[in-house]
Amino acid sequence: MHVPDGFFDVPVSAGAGVVAAAGVAVCLRRARRELDDRTAPMAGLVAAFIFAVQMLNFPVAAGTSGHLLGGALAAILVGPATAVLCVAVVLLVQGFFFADGGLTALGVNITLMAIVTSVVGWTVFRLVTRSAPRSRTAVVVGSFLAALVSVPVAALAFTALFWLGGTAPIEVSSVAAAMGGVHVLIGLGEGLITALTVSSVLAVRPDLVYGARGLAAPLVLRTADGEVPVDRPAPAPAPRLGLRPVLVGGGLVALLLAGVVSFYASSAPDGLNKVAADKGFNANEKPHDFESGPLAGYGVGGIENERLSGGLAGIAGVGITVLAGGAIFYTVRRRRQDKAVV
């Protein structure tokens, strides 16, 4: 759902930029509470993983594909505020290095793909896990539903912005029906990827899943008068793996997905591009300012072998995302520590 330049007029693009900047500023502040000794190292990995998986377009209908948005997944793994920052980092890397997503539309993309998906996904996840018995099953089911709902909601938010300032005179109800329909299908794929990823982390280090903290049942004191709950939670079991193996393993998976598996991704246009072509407003798309960059189009300039070019670009993207995200999360984490000392 990367919106290119030219789909929205100046007021909506500027307004979305203000919303995005304000949202990121709020999340930078709130992420201090989420970025602890476990979440901070995970955040950079989550951003890199989202970048890698977004390269894997999967077919959803005839001539249409979809890819992970990642807001719900990041919110469940590292917290909602940090999730916004993770997806925003991915969008910045994609926009400035890979010419994916317009620069004037960056505020729109951050608002839709980072803020809306993270907030909606986290809200749905919390509703599910709070209304169900505390268990890993509830976390996985909540992850699936959170991701499933977040995608069509983001698509409808796009439609609302298009109604406010789209550059083509097209019936909004027609755009809403097309965007909502195809993105429900994409949401199913997003839900499956999110549930699979969350369940995999739960299997090896459940304490690294931000949304699963506090799952341990409270201690119960058995007395002659019956069972009395104790406020102190039961101690968590010792982790099966250290943090470093998890980070290294996750990083290798991201490199494998971006460097190798991405070559086999669907070449069909994604949901937004397909709707834009069908409805005719893709004619307003403007060339990207960095379309001649060395990594534009997810390929390394000067390398003719398509497989090698795409693989190296994917690996470079994972590395850039880790470095950029790591620098941001490390800085936010340090500010939290410095504030605690003061």
UniProtKB/TrEMBL annotation:
Species of provenance: Planotetraspora kaengkrachanensis
Transmembrane intervals: 40-62, 68-93, 105-125, 137-164, 246-265, 312-332
Entry keyword Transmembrane helix: yes
Domain of life: Bacteria
Gene Ontology biological-process entries: transition metal ion transport
Alphabetized UniProt keyword annotations: Cell membrane, Membrane, Transmembrane, Transmembrane helix, Transport
PDGLE domain location: 245-334
Membrane topology, from the record: Multi-pass membrane protein
Cellular component terms (Gene Ontology): plasma membrane
Top-level taxonomy: Bacteria, Bacillati, Actinomycetota, Actinomycetes, Streptosporangiales
Subcellular compartments: Cell membrane
UniProt cross-references to InterPro entries, sorted A to Z: CbiM/NikMN (IPR002751), PDGLE_dom (IPR025937)
This protein's name: PDGLE domain-containing protein
